[in-house]
Design brief:
This protein is of the alpha+beta class and 150 residues long. The chain is built from 4 helices and 7 strands; from the N terminus they run H-H-E-E-E-E-H-E-E-E-H. The longest helix has 13 residues. The chain is elongated, with a radius of gyration of 20 Å.
Length: 150
């Protein structure tokens, strides 16, 4: 039986095989997030209009189709703050339910400005000044990076 299925599968046009695979697999969303330091040793946080609870969070957003992750985080930061990134490094990739999150560390300089309707404020924080209502997971990630544990 397996041999017959294999022969049929191989004879199907590529577009049909792809459509069958996509129809039978769970869908994921993918986003990029960055822990960004400046020359003063501060971390960049954005106050998001749509974020539940605190509103404050790390910069990032969803990837566009065919967009490479590093290009995506550079685009998101430019769109939301006008800032450019340097020294971009992949930190880790993790799966949260049906969401793939690609985390980076990077450096930037300047104050930045609100460049998106989704953002209320752009601000650099000293580690000890991070808003306590910031998501605990993001607080932990920031502290790991700043302590050099990752």
């Amino acid at each position: 039986m397996k041999l017959i299925v294999s022969k049929i599968w191989k004879k199907l046009p590529q577009w049909l095989r792809l459509r069958i695979i996509r129809a039978t697999q769970h869908k994921f969303t993918a986003s990029v997030v960055a822990i960004i330091k400046n020359e003063n040793g501060e971390v960049l946080l954005l106050e998001h209009l749509l974020r539940p609870a605190s509103g404050w969070g790390l910069p990032g957003g969803f990837l566009m189709p065919y967009e490479q992750p590093e290009d995506g985080i550079r685009r998101e930061l430019r769109e939301e703050t006008g800032l450019e990134l340097s020294n971009v490094k992949h930190l880790r990739t993790r799966v949260l339910r049906r969401h793939v999150e690609i985390l980076f560390t990077a450096r930037s300089a300047g104050e930045g400005h609100v460049g998106s309707n989704e953002i209320l404020q752009v601000r650099w924080f000293a580690i000890e000044e991070i808003p306590p209502e910031l998501n605990a997971d993001q607080q932990s990630l920031i502290r790991e990076v700043f302590r050099g544990k990752v």
